[in-house]
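Quick entry between incubations.
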Amino acid sequence: MAWTPGAWVEARRAVEATIRDHRPRVLSGLFRVLGDLQLAEDALQDAVAVALERWPADGVPRNPTGWIVTVARRKALDRLRRRTTRRTKSTEVALVAQLERDEASVDDPPEIPDERLALMFTCCHPALSEQARVALTLRLLGGLSTPEIARCFLVPEATLAQRIVRAKKKISAAGVPFRVPPRALLSERLSSVLAVLYLVFNEGYAARSGALVRADLCDEAIRLTGILAELMPDEPEVLGLQALLLLHDGRRAARVGAGGGLVTLEDQDRRLWDRARIAEGAALVQRALRARAIGPYQLQAAIAAIHGEAEQAKDTDWWQIVGLYTALHRILPTPVVALNRAVAVAMAAGPAQGLALLDAPQIAVPLADYLWWHAARADLLRRLGDAAHAAAAYERALRLVTNDIERSYLAARLAACRAIATT
Amino acid sequence: MKYLLLIYGDEGQNQDVSPEAMGRWRKVTEDMTAAGVLLGGEALQPVATATTVRAPGGKVVTTDGPFAETKEQLGGFYFIDVEHLDDALRWAAALPASEHGSIEVRPVMSFD
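Done. Structure below.
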């Protein structure tokens, strides 16, 4: 095929599409063979450069992904050969020998098995720090660049790059396995994967500063959870997390008011909710619950589904939510869950009952410096008509807030309470 | 891959040398041997028996005691050869000391 500008544009698009859609699969396949994430990434980059050069002239290959994998393996082999002359390691010599044996023709590239799941478990291995898990997952499975991730988590780019490099080195040096863990380890390891995906979503949903919602991170978390659900369809907690994310995401548009302010669930214009997304989430919860292996994500999703069912805030079935929080607190007996349960009790039985629970030492002591404990108290005091104490609680909350949008929300509530208190 | 399982514990607290405890140590060691992963391992004398040597500029300085005073002391080690980190972690968790102290799992650097 002759080189033409049209062919060039078309080839470039094909390369981009292949990488966008198949990068994690290609990387996981390379990592399995090479045992070195850095080498896998470098080799992939080399292969993309070759594709950009060759595809405009030769045409887009029949199996673009396989073509990339084959070329990347060859490039990895080149890199290893260069490296081995300097400092020969027996393991690398063995790897070179194996790669040479396996070297396939570019015309007949192999089918690549789907190893994204194994890559997810490697990236989320508990031997890595939580931040490294999140960063690696976004980098290798989400395809976000290091500067993008650094921006999301408000850390200097150099710091994040350093963390990623260190984590990749640890994976190789400490022998973190590339596999889906066996049954005995699965629940512990899966909870680490789910926690990472949940963290990514939350980072996008409740951004700590700047814009209130960072849609790209929410979308990425939902996409990755969707892949996980597709690869592990029988794990109810995976479905539970997927449901939870969809249900929260369905309310995204209503959560930010005109002028960018935070709108609480109670005050949201429910016509802005994405009903299709919420229905999809609700159906997933039902499916997950049928497996009769209750877990925290399923319960949180069930709570979100009940909110999603209510046409208006006043239609909310708060007693059912209290029941679900009680069940959640049995599995996850944390003060924050107790706080949420207390708020649900306030909505079901009245603010005085809720406030009594909030002020119980089991909640009040550990959450004394927790923004939302003060905000919840303030809200219940306001509902009880005690504007002066409500204002004091909002002041405490305001001292703890870090997000500008949340700050302006709390400041507006405080101003309203002060206005009532002085009249 | 080869790993060193470094067993740390509070010497003052953890002196369980009951026949039951010794039996559990023996069992793990036998299991490691049966699995063909055990390369070596020892229990160490208390840290009070330690001597630290430094030779800055070639001048040998010998001092009584450990390199660092810490709450948990190195009490022994196992040296194992397993497939990957997960296997090493599984053996570490099987050591009775993991209940009271902590086991540091360190991969061995290879220079081959």
